[in-house]
């Protein structure tokens, strides 16, 4: 059971998929016309005069300034896995220019047609930042930050060449989640406590690394030029994990479906496109500061999540409530209840405060849209039949596993 706990937690982590494809391409001059109207309109949203915007330092004239109107030159450290392709799509639609920086290994699975409209630099955050030298951008988005030293190195290299540094962090910086209503100004754990078990250490690893990386970015760029976004579990097309695939695939088929866990438990998630698009808008507005990247807009219980997800399909379903956490634990079914983990340390995990982010422009698409789009992506050519079969057909795949657990549950009466 400990193992499945670790899996759930580590699934918050960044998963790297490698292939041998060389993605280096030349920039294409034909870019879409800039949607100045939408940018002008968004600039009028409630941020004008807000303390956040006021804190944006405009005194450093030597730096390229962030343009309030007109296209931005945006560098994405990363850009080809899950979050990146959605950022690229939205940014191109709004007329911005994109450069990515990767090792050239990870192949995008969505919006692949857009990658000949961007510049793709090749290097390695471990030991080769050559391609980033002597270049200027309006903003950098650090998606691929996996080590504090990586973020420190790119921040230092780019600090006089780029106006804004957006660091993609995570709500895992709040671990252990002893309290609820977690706000951005909560003090973070910056060192892994000594003398703890290996498993506990793994819980801390990711959050502590991300918290220190946030600090590395802001100490080099200055708080007035740094944006930190802390997403919760991201879901949507191009996910490299299968952790969100149970509900879209199972609800689409209909029949007997487990409704797991305490019906009062709250859950939080965010559509990857809501995060991606909001990040681009933060750059357009030059809104600096730290923000939780969390949804949905209002408290959502687990049954509300499942019913909301089912709204994407017209199937006949029969929900079977299984509240017994011990039974779910014994059968490694925590992944079904989107991360309603028991224990004091997880108390606030799905109670992250969203007020500051919403005031600063985070918006949410409906859950049913997220689920339907994820379902359609899963059954498209973007996903291999082998991956689908592994998840849906194999004995150890989630779907078959849950079916056998459901039988065991029924036989218990
Ligand atoms: N998924 C979630 O639910 C979740 C939740 C909270 C926070 N986050 C955070 O969200 C971020 C988004 O990750 P993403 O994978 O979706 O971003 P992405 O920008 O779409 O892809 C990550 C990129 O990193 C590149 N990369 C990996 N190792 C590299 C290296 N050594 N040097 C240069 N580039 C390298 C990969 O390309 P190559 O392999 O070709 O180098 C890939 O393009 C991560 O920081 C993660 O911690 C994710």
Can you lay out the helices and strands and say which pair or pack?
Blueprint (H helix, E strand, L loop, with lengths): L1 H9 L25 H8 L7 H4 L18 E5 L5 H11 L3 E6 L16 E4 L14 E6 L5 H11 L3 E7 L29 H24 L4 E6 L2 E2 L10 H8 L1 E6 L9 E2 H14 L3 E5 L8 H9 L6 E6 L2 H6 L24 H5 L7 H12 L6 H8 L5 H14 L2
Parallel strand pairs: 1-2, 1-4, 2-3, 4-5, 5-6, 6-10, 7-9, 8-11
This protein binds NADP nicotinamide-adenine-dinucleotide phosphate (NAP).
NADP nicotinamide-adenine-dinucleotide phosphate binds next to helix 4.
Quick gist of this model?
By secondary structure, the chain is of the alpha/beta class. It has two domains: 8-235 and 270-293, 3-Layer(aba) Sandwich (Rossmann fold); 246-268 and 298-342 and 366-411, no CATH class.
Number of strands: 11
Give Rg in angstroms: 22 Å
- Return the CATH class of the largest domain: Alpha Beta
Question: How many domains make up the 3D coordinates?
Answer: 2
Architecture (CATH level 2) name of the largest domain: 3-Layer(aba) Sandwich
Ligands in the model, by name, code or SMILES, are: NADP nicotinamide-adenine-dinucleotide phosphate
What is the CATH superfamily label of the largest domain? NAD(P)-binding Rossmann-like Domain
By CATH, the topology of the largest domain is Rossmann fold
User: Which strand order do you get reading across the main beta sheet?
Assistant: 3-2-1-4-5-6-10
Query: Which runs of at least 5 residues are low in confidence (pLDDT < 50)?
Result: 1-61
């Amino acid at each position: 059971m400990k193992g499945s706990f670790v899996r759930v937690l580590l699934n918050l982590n960044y998963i790297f998929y490698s292939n041998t494809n060389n993605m280096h391409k030349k920039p294409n001059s034909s870019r879409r016309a800039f949607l100045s109207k939408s940018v002008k309109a968004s600039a009028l949203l409630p941020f004008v005069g807000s303390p956040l915007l006021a804190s944006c330092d405009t005194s450093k004239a030597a730096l390229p300034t962030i343009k309030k109107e007109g296209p931005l030159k945006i560098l994405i450290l990363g850009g080809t896995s899950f979050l990146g392709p959605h950022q690229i799509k939205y940014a191109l639609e709004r007329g911005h220019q994109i450069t990515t920086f990767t090792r050239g290994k990870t192949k995008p699975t969505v919006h692949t047609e857009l990658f000949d409209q961007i510049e793709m630099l090749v290097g390695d955050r471990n030991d080769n930042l050559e391609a980033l030298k002597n270049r200027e951008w309006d903003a950098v988005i650090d998606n691929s930050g996996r080590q504090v030293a990586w973020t420190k190195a790119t921040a230092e290299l780019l600090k006089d060449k780029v106006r804004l540094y957006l660091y993609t962090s995570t709500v895992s910086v709040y671990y252990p989640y002893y309290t609820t209503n977690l706000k951005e100004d909560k003090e973070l754990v910056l060192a892994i406590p000594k003398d703890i078990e290996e498993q506990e250490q793994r819980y801390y690893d990711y959050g502590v690394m991300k918290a220190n990386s946030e600090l590395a970015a802001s100490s080099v760029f200055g708080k007035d030029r740094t944006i930190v976004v802390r997403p919760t579990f991201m879901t949507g097309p191009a996910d490299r994990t299968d952790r969100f695939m149970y509900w879209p695939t199972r609800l689409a088929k209909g029949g007997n479906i487990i409704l797991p866990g305490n019906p009062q438990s709250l859950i939080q998630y965010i559509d990857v496109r809501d995060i991606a698009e909001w990040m681009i808008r933060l750059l357009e507005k030059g809104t600096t500061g730290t923000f939780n990247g969390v949804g949905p807009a209002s408290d959502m219980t687990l049954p509300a999540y499942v019913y909301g997800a089912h709204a994407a399909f017209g199937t006949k379903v029969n929900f079977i409530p299984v509240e017994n956490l011990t039974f779910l634990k014994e059968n490694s079914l925590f992944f079904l209840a989107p991360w309603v983990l028991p224990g004091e340390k997880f108390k606030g995990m799905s109670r992250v405060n969203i007020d500051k982010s919403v005031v600063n422009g985070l918006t949410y698409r409906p859950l049913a849209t997220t689920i339907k789009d994820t379902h359609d992506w899963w059954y498209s050519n973007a996903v291999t039949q082998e991956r689908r079969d592994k998840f849906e057909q194999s004995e150890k795949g989630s779907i078959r596993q849950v079916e056998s657990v459901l039988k065991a549950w029924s036989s218990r009466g």
